[in-house]
Amino acid sequence: MTPKQNSIRIFIFTLLLGVIFNVQAQNISPLEGRWDLEMDFMGKTSPSWLEIRHSGHATLLGRFVFAFGSARPISEVKTYGENKFTFSIPNQWEPKGSDMIFHGELVDDQLKGTLIYTDGSVLHWTGVKAPTLAYTEDPKWDKTIKVFNGKDLSGWHVDGEKNQWTVKDGILTSPESGSNFITDQKFQDFKLHAEFRFPKGSNSGIYLRGRYEVQIVDSEGLEPADIYIGGVYGFLEPNQNAGKPGGEWQTYDITLIGNRVTIELNGKTIISDATIPGITGGALDSKEGEPGSFMIQGDHGPVEFRSFEVTPLKK
What we know:
Elements: H1 3-26, E1 33-41, E2 44-55, E3 59-65, E4 72-74, E5 78-80, E6 84-89, E7 100-107, E8 110-116, E9 122-129, E10 145-146, E11 156-158, E12 166-168, E13 171-174, E14 181-183, E15 190-197, E16 203-208, E17 212-217, E18 250-257, E19 260-265, E20 268-275, E21 295-296, E22 303-312
Antiparallel strand pairs: 1-2, 1-9, 2-3, 3-4, 5-6, 6-7, 7-8, 8-9, 10-22, 11-14, 12-13, 13-22, 14-21, 15-18, 15-22, 16-17, 16-21, 18-19, 19-20
């Protein structure tokens, strides 16, 4: 092949790539993206999350997070009419029954629709595009705040009627399943240092901004997974299982800037500058653009903390 022929071949190949790219760009649906949802469920507004993206030229698929449970895949999002769509989701932690059926529509840059629950009841929901969160490349940090003062429960509140949380000998303790524990103060970008302990077989977690759960669970010795210690529940898998056995003190050092997180567990970096796609099940709200509280999961198993310190990003 002569140099001239090779140049023509490269030109044609580049032209074809441009045509393919333009066709794909034209086929991008306005439904695509990540959406923060609010759903009328059990008499209150429950935060949820939806992602829709394309696969190949015409297929839409995605992920969905309900008021509880982990992110679950959507095998196909079917579209019809003008900006209308539907998909089904199998049971996870819901009561047994039929698959949940979603119907939605894009109206004036917002989603709205209904969900047929497993028992046949109809839930109404709305959604807005998840915001793009600013990231600070060279962060400067403010003074560290001892959110748990080592003396009492001041600065915190529970999300239910039962307050099982106590402080004894400088240790914040949830001895049994009860209410989640929430900071009065809200934070945007921060570094968190937490020292915790749980008995064998227990399960808890820390919700960053009240929206993104970092797992605390007895999974020592198991293969790393997003549902085990160190994972962002249902989304981000740690590169190793650095957890200790139940009954031993452990340490989290977590940095969250925008929606990018770095997690150190017991001195080992297990997730490095990774993007959290959206809220996890059990979140306080789906308002991702706003500061949020820390929430410690207390409705699963016993857990203790002897340190909970937050260093906010300097404004």
